[in-house]
């Protein structure tokens, strides 16, 4: 894909703020025609820069108010495929990052309460290949893709 220019960058920012924003609204913001904005967004999608459109959920309002990251250490011979197999089937696990060094993986969790968190951590430890865990509780968060409103604690 050719370089992303300032207008493409502004369109991406607008879509990160609100993925349901119309081409007409974005055209007004960036000073282009609706057709030109649509062509640019289509080009960004075709090039794989935009990989999809999604919704942001307030999980606390659904009863899943605890968010944590768990560092997981596995026995030396555990293949990455086994790390993914043992974690991706657990619905409370939101993301798994296999990483170089110590620990072997960083797992993003959402749970109802601390007892629920303990159950999930105990389940990870029972898989047989886990040699250690360290869990970090999220107090607040900010992400570049959630530009509009910081979440809890900020």
Helix-strand blueprint:
Blueprint: H1 6-17, H2 23-30, H3 34-46, E1 66-74, H4 80-88, E2 93-98, E3 105-111, H5 114-125, E4 130-137
Antiparallel strand pairs: 1-3, 1-4, 2-3
Keywords:
154 residues; alpha+beta; 4-stranded antiparallel sheet; 4 strands; 35% helix; 19% strand; elongated
Descriptive account of the structure:
With 154 residues, the chain is an alpha+beta fold. 35% of the residues lie in helices and 19% in strands. It is built from 5 helices and 4 strands; from the N terminus they run H-H-H-E-H-E-E-H-E. Strands 2-3-1-4 form a 4-stranded antiparallel sheet, with helices on one face. A hairpin with a 6-residue loop joins strand 2 (93-98) and strand 3 (105-111). Helix 2 (23-30) crosses helix 3 (34-46). It is elongated. The model is unreliable at 148-154 (pLDDT under 50).
Strand elements, count: 4
- Strands in their spatial order, largest beta sheet: 2-3-1-4
Total DSSP helices? 5
Strand content: 15-25%
List low-confidence stretches. 148-154
Helix content: 25-40%
Over all CA atoms, what is the radius of gyration?
20 Å
User: What shape does the CA trace take?
Assistant: elongated
**Main beta sheet strand tally, sense and closure:** 4 strands, antiparallel
**Gap from first CA to last CA:** 38 Å
State the secondary-structure class: alpha+beta
Order of helices and strands: HHHEHEEHE
Mean pLDDT: 90
């Amino acid at each position: 894909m050719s370089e992303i220019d300032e207008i493409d960058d502004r369109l991406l920012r607008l879509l990160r703020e609100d993925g349901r924003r119309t081409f007409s609204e974005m055209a007004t913001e960036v000073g282009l025609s609706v057709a030109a904005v649509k062509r640019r967004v289509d080009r960004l999608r075709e090039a794989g820069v935009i990989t999809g459109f999604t919704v942001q959920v307030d999980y606390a309002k659904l009863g899943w108010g605890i968010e944590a990251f768990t560092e997981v250490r596995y026995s030396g011979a555990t293949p990455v495929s086994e790390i993914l197999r043992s974690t991706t089937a657990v619905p409370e696990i939101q993301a798994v990052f296999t990483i170089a060094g110590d620990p072997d993986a960083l797992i993003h969790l959402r749970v109802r309460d601390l007892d629920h968190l303990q159950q999930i951590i105990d389940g990870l430890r029972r898989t047989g290949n886990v040699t250690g865990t360290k869990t970090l509780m999220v107090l607040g968060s900010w992400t570049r893709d959630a530009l509009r409103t910081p979440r809890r604690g900020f």
